[in-house]
Amino acid sequence: MKNDNKVRAKKHLGQHFLKDPRKAETIVSHLSPQGAYDNVLEIGPGMGILSDFLLARNDFRTFMIELDKESVAFLKNKYPLDFGRIIDGDFLQFNPEGVIPGSFAVIGNFPYNISSQILFRVLDWRDKIPELVGMFQKEVAERIAGSPGGREYGILSVFMQAFYEVKLVMTLDQNDFDPPPKVKSAVIHCRRKEGFELGCDEKKFRKLVKAAFGQRRKMLRNALAVMLDKEMIEQLPYMSLRAENLSWKQYVELTNLVP
């Protein structure tokens, strides 16, 4: 059933609704074709501009999770879906077990103030999430997809690129949204590396990467002095570099040297 009323965008929730259906269709088209997974979870559907194209596809079942009560009521009126497919809740607190059967892709026009937290949550659930198509502030999207050596390269770049193949696939202007954000936006596509083993202890890996970027202006020999043996540090050729210069593979190598 169609609902012609509009949801009021709420600043504290970071809501900026995409306006152009053609661009919404393009974003949805980046999801893998039939058979890749059974379910898709849309985060923050708002008024459903992406949802329209998700529900038009019959190769997966669409779930939605929305924190805004007004949007939840709007979506439930607009879409006659089975009970439980429009979830009233916060993705950052969401446990998919028992709600979404099997694996699921994630898609959404993510609130920019929590977009990094969404990715950390995706990493926590990566065994269930083979793919992500998400809209971010352009600067954040460039950081996630960036190569070592770039100023934008950071912790999320290392973590996401270790477990997913990451590509920036689309950019959008402020005027594509209502209300327009103050920044440009971009869409990234992340596909999980199947059969992938990190090759080191993941807890140590995360701790080491965070330590390196926690003092990113320092050379690694100084930033990681408390984690690595001093003699070992002197023997490693890239310890005179800074955190943003190393690939995720080099961080794996360093992690395996942590006692």
- Quickly give the CATH architecture of the largest domain: 3-Layer(aba) Sandwich
Overall CATH class of the largest domain: Alpha Beta
Strand content: 15-25%
Mean pLDDT: 92
Structural class: alpha/beta
| Strand order across the largest sheet | 4-3-2-5-6-9-7
* Shape category: elongated
For this structure, the CATH topology of the largest domain is Rossmann fold
Instruction: Tell me the distance between the termini.
Output: 61 Å
Oligomeric organization of the protein chains = single chain
Rg, Å, rounded: 20 Å
Please indicate the count of domains: 2
Proportion of helical residues: 25-40%
Flag low-confidence runs: none
Number of strands: 9
CATH superfamily of the largest domain: Vaccinia Virus protein VP39
Number of helices: 10
Order of helices and strands: EHEHEHEEHEHHEEEHHHH
Largest beta sheet, briefly? 7 strands, mixed
List keywords for this structure.
two-stranded antiparallel ribbon, alpha/beta, 259 residues, seven-stranded mixed β-sheet, Helicase, Ruva Protein, domain 3, elongated, Rossmann fold, 10 helices, 2 domains, 9 strands
